[in-house]
Amino acid sequence: MPRRTALGLDFGTESARAVLVDVETGEEVGAAVQAYPDGVIDDRLPGSGRKLPPDWALQNPDDYWTALESAVPAALRAAGTSPQDVVGIGVDFTSCTVLPTRADGTPLCRDPALRSEPHAWAKLWKHHGAQPQADRINALAAERGERFLARYGGKTSSEWLFAKALEILEQAPEIYARAERLIEGGDWIVWQLTGRERRSACQAGYKGLWSRAEGYPSRDFFAALHPGLADIVAEKLATEIHPIGARAGELTPEAAQRLGLRAGIPVGVAIIDAHAAVPAAGIAEAGKMLLVLGTSGCHLMVGRAERHFPGITGVVQDGILPGFFGYEAGQPATGDILAWHTRAAVPPEYHAEAERQGVSMHQVLQEHAAALRPGECGLLALDWWNGNRSILMDADLAGVLIGLTLDTRPEDIYRALIEGTAFGTQAILENFRAHSCPVDELYACGGLVERNPLLTQIYADVTGRPIRLVRSGQA
User: Fold this and answer.
1) Do the domains spanning 5-274 and 283-475 agree at the CATH topology level?
2) What is the pLDDT of residues 365-397, one digit of tens each?
3) Where are the domains of the chain?
4) What burial letters (b/e) apply to 238-265, b meaning 16+ CB within 10 Å?
5) How does the average pLDDT of the chain come out, rounded?
6) DSSP labels for 16-49?
7) Nearest of 374, 370, 373, 380 to residue 405 by alpha carbon
8) Which of 294, 290, 9, 241 is nearest to 125 (CA)?
9) CATH C-level class of 5-274
10) Domain 283-475 indexed as CATH 3.40.50.1910
11) Nearest residue to 11 via CA among 67, 52, 53, 56
12) Which of 178, 274, 278, 284 is close enough to 298 for a disulfide, judged by CB 3.0 to 4.6 Å?
């Protein structure tokens, strides 16, 4: 009897992966990963070589298709599964990654005349160039007493939809005028797969200031923010928002041919990548927080009641699981901080050691750092290398490392950076508890959980509680 499988398409910061899961057992039966050819574009634009300002992070939307066209057939081969046995497709995507497109979904950066215009490219979630715009959104919303602000802990982020849209409008008004749609990456992929524009309640709720009860902020608010932004919802977004778990449409013949699948497979509404991990971890009750630890850190839990308090990055009805309010907090850099250290502050002899052992630099540093006692090196790190998401919501903040001496070694710094991110997580847990939203159990998943056991142990030590690890070869 053929094994029926569901296909998950996960779009991360640096790569996309395709995972096939047996729908009867939940077993992962095949997977493949493909890096984006242009990766994270944070220095110069491909082709033109145009230099980007600080705090920018872009992507090439064509990389998403390139990765899919490689990863999906490879996952089918790995599973030994026929395309006929795939019965459904789910999509998750980093958020808020925003694409300016034409009315038919064509990204503006495909236009040869716009290839050298940075605002025509996809703005990755960790693009922080819109902090001044976010500050103005926050100030105006507070001045007007806008109710939506409370759902986001009193502040919105430079990473989110409207800050990035306002940045485009103010810095490249001709690009804003040409952008007939501004759309999240996950919604765009679903559009390309099905031929239908279907906006997700998850992305709209957490990153687009939308709620099921109130919709988007009012036209008056946007007009007060900037006259050119007044009609953004009607002109460039979509007022029909679809719940997670809903059927967005079916795989078109064109998309099926490109991916080596059959046409007509149901495709679900997109969800944010981290948020998809909550049901996958088996979490379906209040009090259980999932730490999704990878490039960044996302802290997620669900509850039956809606509470508004500072330091969260959003509470959305049905945003993670139907019937629950989904709470989100997070750190904009975890794995990115450790990766920075391996690139910028490790001498040649450590690289030689990694090469001799045939392991990664992270494994070498973990081995040395694990031999250290807590506090032994005398270093303290504040984990704001990419700004702060929770609990201060300020992308302009910078990291701190103190206690350096002439005897400081790379492993000392590596351990201090892990400890810094762990204490950042502890601050988030304490903030939830202080606002009557206690965390009873901790779970963790993601690439760092799979590859960095020292990190998960330090997190358990700092938080003073056991952490249940959710294992997956494609976390």
Assistant:
1) yes
2) 999 999 999 989 999 999 999 999 999 999 999
3) 5-274, 283-475
4) eeebbebeeebbbbbeebbeebebeeeb
5) 97
6) EEEEEEETTT--EEEEEEEE-TT--B-SB-TTT-
7) 380
8) 294
9) alpha beta
10) no
11) 67
12) 274
